[in-house]
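thought: user wants a sequence for this fold. calling inverse folding tool.
action: design(structure=
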């Protein structure tokens, strides 16, 4: 190897050292974690899942006894039908009164009364339709469904229990999204200049490596190490659902 080749090799080594990827050790967090409850009160008739179960979006997790809700829906539907008939009859009566008024067989007072009757019937129908919508919503709310695919973290409900949500609802299930997670690292302030949202990053968990992107860079310090502020940086990544990763696991984030 001649002198020029030696200098070139040294330059390449120095350059490679200068662009070496940065690494941080962090922990895994759920990308989405929600506490699920129901806005209606009732008696739990069935709990379909348990902690650790994987569920699909829209899957029924819990069912309240829906007999009372179904009865209210039928009652509301009957009232809507009745008020529609009343409105139709009021409109027919108004047509008759208008015809007689134009023939000067009735006074204007009778015409005004007929118009008021139509307006009242229309208002009653709107109120009945609103009650019907609320009754149908309450029937729908008697089923607690998964808003997205995930894993049940906590189950805090049993068949036969009474759910009372008049003042404040309490979580019946805790659900976390599967397939995507956050790796959160703490970065010193002088290192933030090298990072930007959307950058590619690798997340290494034991012997597995996943491709991710920087999603968030904290604006306020979360810790002080050696007298220097550190900021939270989140990297979102996807992973196979069958791996069943857990929050709190250690991960290494590599940014090229």
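)
observation: tool returned 256 residues.
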């Amino acid at each position: 190897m001649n002198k020029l080749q030696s200098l070139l090799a040294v330059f390449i080594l120095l350059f490679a050292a200068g662009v070496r990827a940065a690494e941080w050790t962090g922990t895994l967090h759920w990308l989405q974690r929600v506490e699920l409850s129901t806005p209606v009160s009732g008696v739990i008739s069935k709990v379909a899942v348990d902690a650790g179960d994987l569920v699909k979006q829209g899957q029924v997790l819990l069912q309240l006894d829906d007999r009372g809700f179904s009865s209210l829906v039928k009652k509301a539907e009957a009232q809507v039908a009745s008020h529609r008939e009343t409105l139709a009859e009021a409109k027919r009566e108004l047509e008759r009164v208008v015809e007689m008024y134009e023939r000067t067989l009735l006074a204007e007072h009778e015409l005004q009364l007929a118009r008021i009757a139509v307006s009242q019937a229309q208002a009653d129908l709107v109120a009945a339709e609103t009650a019907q919508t609320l009754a149908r919503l309450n029937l729908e709310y008697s089923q607690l469904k998964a808003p997205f695919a995930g894993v049940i973290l906590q189950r805090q409900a049993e068949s036969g229990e009474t759910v009372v949500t008049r003042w404040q609802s309490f979580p019946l299930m805790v659900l976390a999204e599967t397939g995507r997670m956050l790796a959160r690292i703490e970065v010193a302030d002088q290192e933030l200049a090298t990072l930007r949202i959307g950058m590619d990053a690798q997340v290494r968990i034991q012997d597995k490596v996943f491709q991710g992107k920087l999603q968030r860079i904290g604006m306020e310090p979360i810790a002080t190490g050696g007298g220097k502020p550190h900021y939270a940086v989140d990297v979102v990544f996807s992973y196979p659902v069958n791996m069943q990763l857990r929050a709190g696991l250690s991960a290494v984030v590599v940014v090229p």
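thought: summarizing for user.
answer: Here is the designed sequence. Helices lie at 3-18, 67-102, 108-141.
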